[in-house]
Amino acid sequence: MNKQKNVNNSSDDSANNSASIDPQTKTILVVDDEPDISLIFTSELEEHGYKIMVASGGNEAYEVFKQNKVDLILSDIRMADGTGVDLLQKITADKEINSVPLILFMTGHSDISSEEAYNMGASALITKPIDINELSNSIKEHFCNKKTQLKKKFNSKDLHINFDIEFDGSAVTSNDVLSKLSLGNGGFFTPILEECKMPEPGSLIKFSLKDTSKNIGIIEGVGLVRWVRKKIIKELRKGIGVEFINLTDESIVNFLNFCNSKKTYRFIPNN
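Predicted structure:
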């Protein structure tokens, strides 16, 4: 059963700040077919201490990735020699690849929606023109360990809607497409009932995901609404995609156990 209710939300304490990382231990693959843009990113990120590799298209980037240890891929989407989407699809489809790297998409066009990007496995969709300082902060955040990523700071005054959702964890873990709720490695999709208020993209919500099968356990905390589907589109249900921002300590344990037991490349599922 899937139950949702809308109420005014009370506040939670802010989370701990991000843990520091050593940039010298991280390799970033920059993929862009405009040499000037690649040079800017390379220069700036090298100043922060990262090791940088460069490719001019998705096909070249795939070969570079296969031959090197890459921690994060910063890729344009629209490129002649293989798009960023082509690159991501090749990586996630390659059964020889044990660990899919963090992938941040950059775009100055409407090549792909955030819904599509997160469902394919991208952990961020960055719109051009890009502020290099904001990009650097985003990269640092993505390099933090999973527990730290799930304890981001938030302003409790920005919380508007509270969702209580019951789901069948056994269906989720078996990848049943008919299950009410879908979990990814960075958030969840939930259908929205007709009588419930639909949150706006970019809004913060408080949620409690209660597993009736007890396979996963409770996952509760604060999430950021990344996209909203206000009507049924073909086989895609009306609903919202939510990124985890701040989870309770118990929820982090439950969620990480889920991630370890069920390998999924999808950051936020789209159905």
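Summary: Residues 1-18, 173-179 have pLDDT under 50 and may be disordered.
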